[in-house]
């Protein structure tokens, strides 16, 4: 099933306790596209870049079944730039620079050939632009998933609340859930957030896994305990790509299948953090993914005799 993916395509500068890189391709949309392309196709990308964005990256995405007619290339302008520094725990980071560049004047246009897509992944982006994409679609997709971050809660909360009313599933991390709900308890946060519009809420907790809330149900997916986490950038987006990629591949949006989808998302996130940038997501094969999913099954599989 077709997935429309909306998000940033960017350059990042990243500093972790283990290394530093001044300029590497990133962006929420880039990570989503690479992760989802392992599971389903076509991925129909909507984004904007300057003419500095590498042509080889575009070719690489195309070769993986990512349609790019919705990616605007602006001559003589720079791509979105983000820079972040991770703390020692690798779970938390400070944003050092957010240079909107081309994003400041972005007005996403859904290409005619994207109309009719069954799945919509609204990656981290200005909430008003996420809303504009929903409004341009003549047929409502079967599932709309939205990712966002603290930056937009601080600068565009009203728009964020508007778009939340129109989505099926929201993906955020634990601190963002607390910020959005004003509640410390994640269970209380979930109750409040589910009243804002989404029917499903996924709260990512970095190396501590992810929780899926729906009505009165809760499901937990662990993160794979990894010996080395090299660069957590994009892990949330790789998770999102794996999640929607699995739902689209199976064309099943039931709660039961969402449980599997968050395991697939966790597997894609676990690959993403193994190298700087989206590199690892480009290298892995179907066999690597299957092996990793098997590791997840083993991680949580146990027998218990209740007396
Ligand atoms: P994640 O680590 O999953 O939160 O994603 C990090 C990616 O999101 C980086 O590659 C950044 O280029 C991109 N990013 C950072 N800040 C923003 C923002 N405010 N809006 C959209 N994308 C962003």
Overview of this protein structure:
- The chain is an alpha/beta fold.
- It has one domain (about 5-300): Ribokinase (UDP-N-acetylmuramoyl-L-alanine:D-glutamate ligase).
- The protein is about 35% helix and about 25% strand.
- The chain contains eleven helices and 13 strands.
- The chain has helices at about 30-35, 55-65, 125-135, 150-155, 155-165, 175-180, 185-195, 235-250, 255-270, 280-285, 285-300, and strands at about 5, 10-15, 20-25, 45-50, 65-75, 80-85, 95-100, 120, 145, 170-175, 200-205, 210-215, 215-220.
- The strands form two sheets. Strands 5-4-1-8-9-10-11-12-13 form a nine-stranded mixed β-sheet, with helices on both faces. A four-stranded mixed β-sheet has the order 3-2-6-7.
- Strand 6 and strand 7 (about 95-100) form a beta hairpin.
- It is globular, with a radius of gyration of 18 Å.
- The protein binds adenosine monophosphate.
- Adenosine monophosphate (AMP) binds near residues 26, 149, 233, 234 and 237.
- Adenosine monophosphate (AMP) binds near residues 12, 98, 124 and 151.
